[in-house]
Amino acid sequence: MAIETIEELETLYDARISDAARLKETDRIIAPYARLIEASPFAILATSGPEGLDCSPRGDRPGFLKVQDDRTLVLPDRKGNNRLDSLRNILNDPRVALLFLIPGSSTTLRVNGRAVISDDPVLLESLAIDDKLPKTALVISVETVYFQCARAVLRAGLWDSDSQVDPKSLPSAGDILEAASDARINGESFDRDWAERAVKTLW
For residue 119, what is the domain's CATH number? Predict the structure, then answer.
């Protein structure tokens, strides 16, 4: 049976919010939240636009997402597949959400806000890695920040060595492309060439 109203939903849950759950949400980046952001090498960026939702992985060296001040984050847009799904969405709807992960930590951090796309040369120069500048950067005005309950990471055993999956047991990018293209793309060739391409185009 589908739940269709807020009232129906709340009858299934204890809708009371604890002080901890309420007080952890801030409208700015307090010092402990800044430390989590600076330790994170990986975040998931969620956007919304006319063509639907997008959820995009973003990763780099820890601290890649810069805390400019307590209400502003800067996210460089490094090389990718050039689909530009997230950026197209932001031009139509500036609302964004970020979920930060830190390897080894069960704490995750969520940030909601609004983003603009900047190609300011001074800003991009400050984000260079190995003399390579991002094409653009997202300047995110923070609206809410809060850490997420650790239960999901603990249940998943995300950082436990026993939970690691052998990549060879999974379809490779080439396998997927060959199947999706009805064999117009040769999966073996794609996978063979990918490792070299990836090293040359990380930044």
Answer: 2.30.110.10
